[in-house]
Write a sequence for this structure.
């Protein structure tokens, strides 16, 4: 089975092609405000370079976020469109689950990937390493770093953290966790190869998402939605 996987939730977009369990290609690139112009050409170039036609792809894996609202929306919409137009099965995976799976050191480890969400918050999840697919203990959420630190302290064990949110709020997290704070700086962004493997695992279990119903994981309202809610609240008062 050939699986094309894409995650664009962070400032480093990732694309990978899995053929069976062998990675045919894996590519990551830094993007700014040009993701909508770069994503499809990058997909086409990588497939062409690998000598694989889009018609040979059997399934898709999509990183669902949370992360950049624009990045998540572009990536998920692109993969949903490819799934619908080409009648391909698609499996969506949380970006935080991908990050957790990528830095799991050993079975039983507590892992917390967190992405800088700005506004003094992080997008975070808490996972237990249970093999190739981590067990989710806390669903993806947007919350202040201090609140996340308090939740992690409650587990009473060492925590392996990764992601841009750790670098941004390392002092807060380290102060709360003390010697239970462990940082994996080489895993700050989701690995598209891991995404492809997690998507394959879901598909092999017969799990697939309806591309029409598949939605990104935003974890909080967008700025436009917050502004609209504030205006509506002011108008009602």
């Amino acid at each position: 089975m050939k699986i094309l996987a894409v995650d664009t939730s962070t400032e480093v977009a990732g694309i990978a092609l899995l053929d069976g369990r062998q990675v045919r290609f894996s590519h990551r690139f830094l993007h700014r405000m040009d993701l909508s112009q770069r994503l499809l050409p990058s997909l086409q170039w990588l497939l062409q370079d690998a000598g694989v036609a889009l018609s040979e792809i059997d399934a898709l894996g999509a990183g669902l976020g949370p992360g950049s609202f624009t990045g998540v929306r572009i990536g998920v919409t692109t993969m949903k469109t490819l799934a619908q137009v080409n009648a391909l099965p698609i499996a969506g995976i949380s970006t935080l689950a991908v990050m957790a799976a990528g830095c799991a050191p050993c079975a039983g480890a507590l892992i917390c990937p967190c992405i800088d969400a700005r506004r003094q918050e992080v997008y975070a999840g808490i996972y237990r390493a249970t093999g190739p697919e981590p067990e989710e203990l806390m669903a993806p959420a947007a919350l202040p770093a201090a609140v996340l630190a308090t939740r992690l302290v409650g587990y009473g064990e060492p925590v392996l953290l990764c992601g841009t949110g750790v670098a941004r709020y390392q002092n807060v997290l380290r102060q709360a966790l003390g010697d239970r704070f462990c940082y994996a700086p080489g895993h700050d962004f989701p690995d598209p190869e891991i995404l492809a493997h997690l998507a394959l695992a879901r598909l092999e279990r017969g799990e697939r998402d309806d591309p029409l119903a598949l939605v990104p994981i935003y974890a909080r309202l967008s700025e436009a939605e917050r502004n609209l809610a504030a205006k509506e609240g002011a108008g009602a008062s």
In short: Residues 224-230 have pLDDT under 50 and may be disordered. The beta strands are 2-7, 12-19, 22-30, 59-63, 90-93, 110-118, 121-128, 135-144, 159-162, 181-183. The helical segments are 35-50, 69-86, 95-102, 145-153, 164-168, 170-177, 192-204, 223-236. Residues 69-86 form the longest helix (18 residues).
